[in-house]
Amino acid sequence: MIEKDVIIIGGGAAGFFAAINIAERHPNLKITILERGKEGLTKVKVSGGGRCNVTHAEFIPQDLILNYPRGEKELLGPFHQFMTGDTIEWFEKRGVALKIEDDGRMFPVSNSSQTIIDCFLNEADKYGVEILYNHSVKAIGKKGQYFEIDTTKDAFITDKILVATGSNPKVWNLLENLGHTISQPVPSLFTFNIKDERIKNIPGVVAKNVEVKVLETDLWSEGPLLITHWGMSAPSILKLSAFGALELAERNYKFKIEVNFIKQSFEDCLDTLKAVKHDLAKKTVFKSTQFDIPKRLWHQLVLASTMTSETRWADLNKQQLENLANQLTQAIFNVDGKSTFKEEFVTAGGVNLKEVNFKTFESKKVDNLYFAGEVLNIDAITGGFNFQNAWTGAYIASKAIVNSQ
Questions:
Q1: Is 310 exposed, middle or buried, given 0-12, 13-18 or 19+ CB atoms closer than 10 A?
Q2: pLDDT of residue 343 exceeding 60
Q3: Is the pLDDT of residue 344 over 80?
Q4: Measured distance CA(352)–CA(334) in Å, rounded
């Protein structure tokens, strides 16, 4: 058996972040990262379309936690210890400047995830962190105060383990064997599959500010909506998918949504349309886009309101006006299935949060066993929030590991 002081299972963002922080505080510790793949940091590489969405420009813990469908209550204390501003400072101290985009997402100024990867690899090398690739963990056992770990290549013995494997069912099974309870995983960030004549031929259209409700539930969200080749995406949909992960899974991803494209009431919209009917009497409805919605979307909603492209405002009857107001404020779409959001596969599920001490991110079931990142039943909406959870958990766990030496 190979002896190590600290073993980190998982060569992703949380694993590297923790290893570097431990090594920096306690240079004499022998720290090893066990990564099952031939390379690590693969999720970092694809995040944010290859730019790495490091965190989000939200600097108040009470507001930051609202972006976590699972983990909101538990993360409030940890975010008072380490959050967005600390993340920015951590990377800047290591020569990686971050920038804030209009939607609050934060990326390296280089616009390349390789900058973050290089930072981690350089820091790990600087502090002598050992990284063992192609070491898939097969078993974790506790013998007295020590852990024994079997991988596909070697066997190790260590005082402390930090598990940072993300959503890995095999590792969850190993943690169950140690006495932990696992909340079963379901997809969290996903887009909606919708086949509908109104959106069939207008992929790429973005409605900037909509409200979306899942009918027969309390789920709703607002924000931009993107029409795609397979249905709908963008923040308004992704928020729903995250906060509704469990409920939508129970419905087998078959449900109805109501979209308010203009965020006005039916009555207010109808009053506006009646005024437009008077003011633009001789013009065609088709060519008279209203409410600042995309022209191609307006065309489809007009055609869905029992009109033609030649119908004039003056010729609209009461029913047609109501039909158009209905399409604009309470359009119903049938969702039939989901699609993964880009390459970013996020799940709800993981180690039961009641079994973790969030002052240290140590297991309440097994001494000297720590967690960071999505191995826990914590997940967030898109925008850099999942990474912030990883940085926070890894930082606090690393601090606790060093303080316990």
A1: exposed
A2: no
A3: no
A4: 34
Integer angstrom CA distances of residue 283 from 156, 288, 310, 316: 78, 7, 9, 11
Q: How far apart are CA 60 and CA 41, in angstroms?
A: 28
Fill in the amino acid letter for 69.
Answer: P
Give me 231's structure tokens: 């249905």
Q: Quick one: which H or E segment has residue 118?
A: helix 113-126
Return the beta strands (E) in 194-317 as ranges. 206-214, 220-227, 231-233, 254-260
0.90 exceeded by the pTM?
Answer: yes
Q: How big is the chain, counted in residues?
A: 405
- Is the confidence at residue 69, as pLDDT, over 80? yes
> Binning pLDDT at 50, 70 and 90, where does residue 347 land?
confident
CB atoms within 10 A of CB 204: 10
Write the DSSP symbol of residue 35: -
Q: Which whole number is the average pLDDT over 67-72?
A: 98
Measure the CA–CA gap between 71 and 403, rounded to whole angstroms: 25
For residue 161, give the nearest of 179, 145, 185 by alpha carbon.
Answer: 145
pLDDT in tens, 282-300: 999 999 999 999 999 999 9
State how far Cα 402 lies from the chain centre: 30
Cα radius of gyration rounded to whole Å, the chain:
25
Amino acid at 372: A
Residue 342: which pLDDT band, with cuts at 50, 70 and 90? low
How far apart CA 221 and CA 79 sit, in angstroms, is 24
Alpha carbons 68 and 243: distance in angstroms, whole number: 8
Which helix (H) or strand (E) covers residue 385, if one does? helix 385-403
Q: What is the pLDDT of residues 237-271, one digit of tens each?
A: 999 999 999 999 999 999 999 999 999 999 999 99
| Alpha carbons 400 and 385: distance in angstroms, whole number | 23
Closest to 180 (Cα-Cα) out of 367, 23, 330, 366? 366
Q: What are the residue ranges of helices labelled H in 137-180?
A: 169-177
CA nearest to 383, candidates 120, 104, 42, 50: 104
Mean pLDDT of the chain: 96
The per-residue pLDDT for 194 is 98
Q: Find the helix packing angle between 84-93 and 385-403, rounded to 10°.
A: 70
